[in-house]
């Protein structure tokens, strides 16, 4: 896949998948109306919200630059993406989406978002386990298996993994 097509495809997928899970559905659940919690606790929500949003955008960029493809199953990468945040955790996009939702839960003082975030995380975990990991193993074989053994799926490593 050429870079312009990868950029377009990744941008569309970003709007559709994480946009739905991390923006549209939380809005539907809350109407962006906030509760009444102690303001410093609410402001803490900016940390996971901002960190998750940045991590999500950075990870999508890796698919374009390193993978020459998109995160969308219909337009996968040509190369296994193992750089950037992927050196710390195999699923930085999913971790980032859950962080965004948790940040919204704190910022808006809406506990419903914590329950929703847990459900979304479980659904993403199931998708990764039963679809993505087998597909990556079939597509990238030993390269993916080496990476999978060294980099945790959900809790980031303290130090970056080096493929060489």
What report would you give on this structure?
It is built from 5 helices and no strands. The protein is 67% helix and 0% strand.
Binned, the helix content reads 55-70%
Main beta sheet: strand number and arrangement?
none
Provide the gyration radius in Å. 17 Å
CA(first)-CA(last) distance: 25 Å
Strand-residue fraction? under 5%
Mean model confidence by pLDDT: 95
Q: Which blocks of ≥5 consecutive residues have pLDDT under 50? A: none
Q: Identify the overall geometry.
A: globular
Number of helices: 5
Total beta strands: 0
Order of helices and strands: HHHHH
Kindly summarize this structure in a few lines.
Helix content is 67%, strand content 0%.
Task: Describe how the helices and strands are arranged.
Layout: H1 3-30, H2 39-44, H3 46-65, H4 92-108, H5 112-150
Question: Which key features would you list for this structure?
Answer:
single chain; 164 residues; mainly alpha; globular
């Amino acid at each position: 896949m050429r870079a312009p097509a990868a950029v377009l495809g990744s941008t569309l997928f970003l709007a559709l998948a994480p946009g739905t899970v991390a923006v549209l559905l939380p809005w539907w659940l809350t109407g962006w109306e906030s509760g009444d919690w102690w303001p410093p606790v609410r402001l803490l929500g900016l940390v996971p919200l901002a960190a998750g949003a940045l991590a999500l955008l950075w990870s999508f960029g890796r698919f374009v630059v390193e993978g020459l493809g998109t995160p969308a199953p219909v337009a996968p990468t040509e190369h296994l993406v193992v750089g950037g945040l992927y050196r710390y955790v195999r699923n930085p996009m999913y971790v980032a989406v859950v962080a965004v939702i948790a940040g919204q839960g704190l910022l808006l003082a809406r506990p419903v978002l914590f329950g929703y975030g847990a459900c979304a995380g479980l659904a993403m975990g199931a998708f990764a386990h039963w679809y993505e990991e087998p597909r990556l193993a079939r597509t990238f074989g030993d390269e993916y298996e080496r990476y999978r053994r060294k980099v945790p799926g959900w809790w980031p490593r303290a130090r970056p993994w080096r493929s060489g």
